[in-house]
User: What shape does this take?
Amino acid sequence: AFADSLMWNSPLLRSRQLLYDDLGDINPRLREPRDLFALFSSSGPLLAPRWPIECEVIKENVRHIEWVPPQPEYFYQSTGNEKVPEIVGEEKGTVVYQLDSVPTEGSYFTCSRVGGKRGIIKDLAVTLQGPDDNTLLFESRFESGNLQKAVRIDTYEYELTLRTDLYTNKHTQWFYFRVQNTRKDVTYRFTIVNLLKPKSLYTTGMKPLMYSQLDADTHNIGWRRVGNEIKYYKNNTDDKQQPFYCLTWTIQFPHDQDTCFFAHFYPYTYTDLQCYLLSVANNPVQSQFCKLRALCRSLAGNTVYLLTITNPSQSPQEAAAKKAVVFSARVHPGESNGSWIMKGFLDFILSNSPDAQLLRDIFVFKVVPMLNPDGVIVGNYRCSLAGRDLNRHYKTILKESFPCIWYTKNMIKRLLEEREVLLYCDFHGHSRKNNIFVYGCNNNHRKYWLHERVFPLMLSKNAPDKFSFHSCNFKVQKCREGTGRVVMWRMGILNSYTMESTFGGSTLGSKRDTHFTIEDLKCLGYHVCDTLLDFCDPDQTKFTQCLAELKELLQQEIHKKFNELGQDVDLEGSWSDISLSDIESRNSTSGSDSSLSDGLPIHLLNIADELKQKKKMYKKKKKKQLQTRKQRNEQYQRNNLMRELKLTEDASERAGFASTPQKQPTFFKNSENPSYTTMKNDKPRLNE
Assistant: This one.
């Protein structure tokens, strides 16, 4: 009894971090971590977003309803007669909204706080002169908003300037802002004047999105595609360093005195994510098989969430046999389409559907729903607060500068050590191509030749009106070595993909020439789950059929390639001897300019520049101070000579004689050999 008492009072067994299933058999296991949300409430999560201290943030809580339009929203059909407004700017217009200070290139992130900048939040919109003043009131100081300036050119015409990604002078594509004091039955024109990409889906029929608060409140109508006279064109301003492009459109607002929002795509904010995760944590059923944890904190201190989704196993052996699947989204904050696909996936995998339960029995899902919360909060398009594209830094060792990426990669590395990772997929958005497709990595291993293409082909069959296999590309380019898909592929995940979802819509099947809705993207999340079941079906009939089809498609591609070169081709040899990278001749369609945002984080670059300047100044100063050996000897001998002359003059004055001019020593006449002087009483001095 005494021994038992002593054993149970040991420090190990008194730990609150360990649990014991059976007192007779000491088999400790770790206690479940505490919940991230200390208090659960229907009002939303308690973890308020943290902003850089330079950012002003309004107190209003901006939220939108989800809505699916009852009819397809078709692409805009260009007439060829669209107006191309010339940019006139502040000289001929009136500034009606402008952010006071914007952290751009040359500055860098230092610290953050909830609510951003301290002090009173000023009203940046103009003051209306009376009820008949029809000036629009602009605002964008809310989550994911990014309007920097609005200039009124005419009664109903405005030029808009977007804010670049914080701490950079690049990446203007995403937009999201609010207007108030609208008038119905009149035509307004908006022109965004500082877009950076020369090509855009707006040239092929994509329309902007608008949200009417009155329609949402009274008719439960949400975001919808709007606009006429849509034109994407090169800016007429003369900027030799950086050409800009314009997007212009016209619109008639549905109501007087309405509050409306415009956006590049359906917004999905950090607060939206937290509210969704809070509902999962509050659900007594879902919380049993979905564990919500903090992967890390971002630069600004916002939580990067990690979800582990799997059904409890009956035995340790069954748990160890499960393969893993990893999904992530929003490494590029302006690509909100990734969040909607992720939401569709989570809605399905957390449901009580038999297929969802089967997937949870087979797999362990690791999900990072928002890799770049800081960028999402401040309204960036591509970068984090380090001023860099995180999807070029998966090889980084700078944990403090890129914590979200470092911890994600480290999590997957540890996962690979304990189980096989069947598939990795990072959800993105695409600004130049329609449909949904993937970028993968060619595999030249004989045993698994073409296997990396099976999952995308299956997905194209399950979602034929959304997913285009012919738009997929599997070439690994050198400039993409730092991306998630390539790094994970090199770590040993054969099926490693970047899934690109268009900002526009579909050119396929029944959805041809229509915009994607929120529901379309959420459905794609379901189709990913459905395709996983096909991919892992013990009956490999579908897999084998897809593999045979891929070989046929490749044979056609080879014939096409050799015909273009005017050569004959013999395909009787070994298929696996053919280099797929050589065959794929498609140009890169990533549309990204992230090479401009690669490299060290901005704050380290600034420190490096400061040190470089200090070093340069120090060298310059040191160069002025340093003399050659010859100069030092001459100076030494000059000093000795002046000392001798002064002593002679002093002696003459004391003796009452006037000093007489003395002959210049030979030292000054012959400086070619300064090794010694010929003055009397001066001893020879060797070179120093």
Q: What stands out?
A: The domain at 50-263 is CATH 2.60.40.3120 (Immunoglobulin-like). Confidence is low (pLDDT under 50) at residues 21-25, 38-45, 657-688.
